[in-house]
Amino acid sequence: MDVIVIGSGAGGGASAWALSQQGINVLVLEAGPAYDPYKDYHLHQPDWELERFPDKQEHPLKYSFGEMQPLEKRYDRLRTWNHIRGLTNRSDTRIPYKYHHVQGVGGSTLHFTGEAHRLHPKAFQMRSQYGVAADWPLSYEDLENDYAKAERVVGVSGEDKFSQRPRSTDFPLPPHPASYASQKIIAHSHNTDLKWDFNSLATLSAPYEGRPGCNYCNNCGRGCPRKDKGSVDVTFLHKARLTGHCQIQSNSTVLRIISGDNDRVEGVEYIDKTGATHLVKAKVVIVACGAIETPRLLLLSDTGDGEQGLANESGLVGQNFMETLSWVSAGLHPENLGSYRGLPTDIISWSYNAPDAISNAIGGCRFAVGTSESDLAGPVNYAKRVVAGWGLAHKQKMRETFGHVLSVGSIGESLPNPNSFIALDESNKDRFGRSIAKISSFLNEGEISRLKFMANKCREVLNATGVTEIFEEYGSYDFFNSTHVFGTARMGNDPAESVVNPYCQSHRWKNLFIVDSSVFPSSGGGEAPSLTIEALAIRTARYIRQYLNS
Amino acid sequence: MANTFSRRRFIGSLLYLTALLFSGILLFRSYRSYRAGLDFSTLIARSRARWRYDDPLDATELRCLQQYIDVLAPDDDSPGALKVGVDQRIIAKSSDDPDYRQTLRQGILRINPLAQNKFGCPFHQLTADQVHEIILISEQAKRYSSERLLFDRLREDTFSYYYVAPESWQSLCYQGPPQPVGFSGYQQPLESCDQS
Ligand SMILES: Cc1cc2nc3c(=O)[nH]c(=O)nc-3n(C[C@H](O)[C@H](O)[C@H](O)COP(=O)(O)OP(=O)(O)OC[C@H]3O[C@@H](n4cnc5c(N)ncnc54)[C@H](O)[C@@H]3O)c2cc1C
Ligand code: SF4
Question: pTM value?
Answer without folding.
Answer: 0.93
